């Protein structure tokens, strides 16, 4: 799959990259920051990717608690909990993956508080809320786990920040039953409310049939929920 990296004029085609960073990520974060949904949020769950670093930085600077998944949900405590009142460095440093390792507490799903706003990264976003991720399915899995735990409800907004070149017309990006649709897409120049085309977001939940034995075995939280010891496969 062709991805993009940050360049002087926006995304530049490149392979073997995570969700593309882009020129204008700071401006998109500022546009999101001006929304009523952002201003009302006290707790933000955000992906750990580089394009959303400015979003995480602003959340901490604005006094919001930030939950960020440990890469690949590794370990029995697969989330970083960043308390803006107790950071080991400035918000931008603490909002990075390496900074979070120094500033955050590692917590289990049961230790998280209800989430007011979910920030997801993506390679491309459709105007109908369809989202193309990196292919690992971790963002959708995190969302499903948090929903099952009662931390995300129907009114919790799901947003992304992207470059204009990452936008796609409605209907172009296919969605499966476990894909989480976006409510808002924020670019440096505009905000697209996907709910106007899509309607209410479908209920999210764990779809065990879509999870391989290898993925369940590799993620202690899934192993625990399935009743399977970590590091083993279901038989």
Written description of the protein model:
The protein is of the alpha/beta class and 235 residues long. It has nine helices and 13 strands. The chain has an eight-stranded mixed beta sheet with strand order 6-5-4-3-7-10-12-13. The protein has a three-stranded mixed beta sheet with strand order 9-8-11, with no helix packed on it. α1 (25-33) runs parallel beside α3.
The class by helix and strand makeup works out as alpha/beta
Question: pLDDT under 50 segments (min length 5)?
Answer: 1-17, 230-235
Number of helices: 9
* Rg result: 17 Å
Q: What is the total tally of β strands?
A: 13
Order of the strands making up the biggest sheet: 6-5-4-3-7-10-12-13
Measured between the Cα atoms of the first and last residue, the distance is 33 Å
Mean pLDDT: 86
What is the overall silhouette? Answer: globular
What helical percentage do the residues reach?
A: 25-40%
Largest β sheet strand count, sense and barrel closure: 8 strands, mixed
Strand content: 15-25%
Helix and strand sequence: EEHHEHEEHHEEEEHEEEEHHH
């Amino acid at each position: 799959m062709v991805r993009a990296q940050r360049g002087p004029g926006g995304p530049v085609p490149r392979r073997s990259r995570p969700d593309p960073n882009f020129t204008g990520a700071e401006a998109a974060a500022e546009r999101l920051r001006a929304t009523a949904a952002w201003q009302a949020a006290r707790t933000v769950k955000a992906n750990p990717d580089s394009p959303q670093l400015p979003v995480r930085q602003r959340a901490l600077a604005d006094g919001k608690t930030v939950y960020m998944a440990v890469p690949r949900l590794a370990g029995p405590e697969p989330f970083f909990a960043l308390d803006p009142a107790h950071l080991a460095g400035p918000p931008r440093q603490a909002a990075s993956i390496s900074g979070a390792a120094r500033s955050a507490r590692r917590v289990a799903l049961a230790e998280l508080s209800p989430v007011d706003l979910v920030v997801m990264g993506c390679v491309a976003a459709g105007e109908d809320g369809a989202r193309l991720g990196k292919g690992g399915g971790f963002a959708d899995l995190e969302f499903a786990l948090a929903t099952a735990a009662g931390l995300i409800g129907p009114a919790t907004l799901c947003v992304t920040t992207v470059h204009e070149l990452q936008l796609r017309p409605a209907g172009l990006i296919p969605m499966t039953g476990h894909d989480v649709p976006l409510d808002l897409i924020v670019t440096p120049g505009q905000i697209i409310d996907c709910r106007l085309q899509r309607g209410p977001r479908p209920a999210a939940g764990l779809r065990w049939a879509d999870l391989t034995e290898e993925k369940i075995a590799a993620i202690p939280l899934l192993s625990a929920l399935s009743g399977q010891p970590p590091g083993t496969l279901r038989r």
